[in-house]
Amino acid sequence: MTTSITLYVMQVEKARTEWLDKNTGMLVSFLPEEDLLKGSYSALNCYYLTFIDKDFAKDQYERLKKYFLQTKPVIGFKEYYDRPCWLGMDIDAGPVILNLSSSGTAFALGPATFFNDTETRKGLLRTAEIAGSTITWFGKSHYLLANIALVGEAITLAMRTTIPFN
Fold first, then answer.
1. Which of 127, 99, 98, 97 is nearest to 112 (CA)?
2. What's the pTM value of the predicted model, to 2 decimals?
3. Domains of the chain: total
4. Which of 51, 56, 80, 128 has the smallest count of CB within 10 Å of its CB?
């Protein structure tokens, strides 16, 4: 094995064994002053792991659904798995409404699409439609709130088009 491949394998193994939350088995943040687990961070991890290690990504995605998925009143991913936040603002994730993380829900579209989890994906897209309301302006469709949160529309597009690369 080349040195870079050896380092890669060592880092993934370290992540699998040393960088996991003891209660959930999910990758933790390395910022000690921050919460160790957040829905937005965990969903983004699942997306990026699809490029590195598909099996690890799948395991983390299943854990994300187990600990962060909320199905009522609308489907989405919570920002905090261990406490409610019905209306708030997270410094990293942005608005938290009805206990749901707008960024975490958008980022989770990536692994849902990648792993062909059509039921979850359809639900997340329904929630995005409810929250964003598609409008057509000069022949182009956009989410109504895109002018306020343009990056959210870009993230949603990127996550909706996540596919495996060979």
1. 127
2. 0.83
3. 1
4. 51
Dihedral angle over CA of 7, 10, 14, 17, nearest 10: 170
pLDDT band, residue 2 (cuts 50/70/90): low
CB 124 within 8 A of CB 105: yes
Length of the chain: 166
pLDDT of residue 35: 60
User: Residue 97 phi/psi, 5° resolution?
Assistant: -125, 130
Evaluate whether residue 165 is within a structural domain: no
How far is the first Cα of the chain from the last one, in angstroms, to the nearest whole number? 20
Least trusted range by pLDDT, from 19-23, 81-85, 104-108, 152-156: 152-156
Give the pair of three-digit tokens for residue 19.
């960088």
